[in-house]
Amino acid sequence: MSSRRVRATVVLCSLAGLLFALAGPAHAAPSPASAPSPAPAPSPAPAPSPAPAPSTAPAPTATSTPLPEGPWPPDEILARPPAGVAPRSLAAAGPSTGCPAAPSGVQRTAPGSGKTVALTFDDGPGVTTPAILSILQRYGIPATFFNIGVNASVRPAYVRSELVTGMVIGNHTWDHPQLPTLSASGQASEMDRATAEQSALTAVGSCVFRPPYGEFNATTLSLAQQRGMAVWNWSVDTEDWKAGTSTASSWVERIYSRAVAGGSQAHPVILMHNPPAGIPATVTALPRIIDYYRAHGYRFVDLAGGTGQRASTPAAATTAAGLHVLVRNAAGNIIERTLRGSTWSGWSQLGGSVVGGPAAAATSSAGLAAVAIGNDNAVYRQTVSDGGARSGWGSLSGVTTTRPGSGVGPDGVESIVLRGANGQGYLRQRTAAGWGAWVPLGGLLAPYAPSVAATAGGVLTVAGVGGNHAMYVKTRSAGGAWSGWRLLGGSINSDVALSPTADGTKVVAVVRGGQNGYYSVVNPDGTGWTGWRSLGGSLASGPAVTRNGAALEVFVIGGDGRIYRRTATNGTAVTGWGGWGALP
Ligand SMILES: [Zn+2]
Fold first, then answer.
1. Exactly one of 122, 123, 302, 495 is catalytic; which is it?
2. Residue 250, exposed/middle/buried by CB under 10 A (0-12, 13-18, 19+)?
3. Residue that terminates a domain, selected from 296, 318, 333
């Protein structure tokens, strides 16, 4: 993890002097003790699983036994000759931080209780990576991508897309050698060069490592553990790489049948690939593989211990026409619907084929602006008037590793925030004079979207999640003076949503912790925090929040993929929460 690294090559302005680690003490998880209501889950509880004993995985094989994983020689899966790639500074490749303690030995059983399955994609990124991410997004499930450093250097946007979509990125060495043939320093260099490349692209390190061909020795295990990385092989080998770029249905069937053979295990770890040239048959087989494990009661998990669902975070905004909800649909387009009075409109298309997003804010009483992430990792914006006029998508540039957050102040100034490629927060504002430049806000944020809100007194509040999963706020006074990042605490695993209270004097933050929603009310200067109060639920996404007159409206995606809404009375305080209700 390169917690103090700033790349000069990030497109966003980099001010090295402003970068500092958000390394405050981890605070306690949001406590459900102060829950205002029992808050029934917004989605059907997962079916009780018979939970077979998690000990049916195959016994570890001897370390000297090569396992087939990808073609030999390895240059067939490298996007360019490693010798032609300028090395990143290895100074960035320190131990990963924020990882669970790396266990010793080699792991082959998917984490989590009940029946769990881990999808893993090796040797990328490659041409099929976007299609795989799109399928995973459509299902709202996590996976782990064991990238090769050389391949990451060729397709940096895909690496960032893996992060934006909530996937875990693992280390699969710099150029895919047989590690046991290398000296200790050679093996260490393979790990560290891959980590340095990934850190330069995303400011996130790897907590998991997979040795090429599954081959390792005691040195490999020791080096990975020293770097905070758990070593993961697999228990189900689809041998999908043998299909190459063939689209023949016989290959699709072979990959499918080998993948679902893992249904005999309680915790299969499935090996698939997304090398530079891609494996189209894997893409074709993937939805059926997911359907199979879903139908058989498995929960999808990543290998870093994350079991949360990965639905896209919705967006919400309120204009004179009513209450607007926006989401990214299965095709990657942004769609919008409006609650007029008590009637929801149908969905209307904003298009885009975006990687992530949306966020939205009312730019006037009669229109909103939506923002989303393009496949170049830049921010795109589109305005939608209450009368139905749309501007089309226009680029606001930048390089983001999260969904953006947006807000509009009482003065009409529009603010967009994001996490840059270097992990810092960034702010761009539109005033009467037009768009300003992207301004670095410093910090080192976890890859969850920050959010922004302006209060009546002219104070701008930006909230983000630190590497310790706690919330931090940074404020700019009406006079323009920035505070530092202030720790508010919590244990957050979602994008942050912020809104002013109805009276405009305070800020409401809504997040997901575990699978539940939580909210907190805080003064614009970061003081007077109420602590986290539970909203319950079983959230598959981060929340969206908007001020709707004297109400505060929260929207999330539930575990069943439906959109749920919960409403509170929003005055100086936020009280009187109703229950979760699914949108019709
Ligand atoms: Zn491999």
1. 122
2. exposed
3. 296
pTM as predicted: 0.85
For residue 407, report the distance from its CA to the centre of ligand 1, in Å.
Answer: 43
Dist. CA 250 → ligand 1 center (Å): 23
Measured in Å, residue 69 CA sits from the centre of ligand 1 at 6
Identity of the amino acid at 205: G
Mean of pLDDT values over 416-432:
95
To the query of whether residue 411 is one of the catalytic residues in this protein, the response is no
| Count: domains in the chain | 2
On whether the CB atoms of residues 290 and 299 are closer than 8 A, the answer is no
Q: Is 176 one of the annotated active-site residues of the chain?
A: no
pLDDT tens sequence across 128-181 = 999 999 999 999 999 999 999 999 999 999 999 999 999 999 999 999 999 999
The residue annotated as part of the active site, out of 172, 267, 273, 469, is 273
Between the CA of residue 11 and those of 151, 379, 422, 460, what are the distances in Å? 20, 12, 10, 24
269 shares its domain with 361: no
Q: CA nearest 325: which of 356, 359, 301? A: 359
Whole domain around residue 126: which residue ranges? 74-84+91-296
Distance 191 CA to ligand 1 centre (A): 13
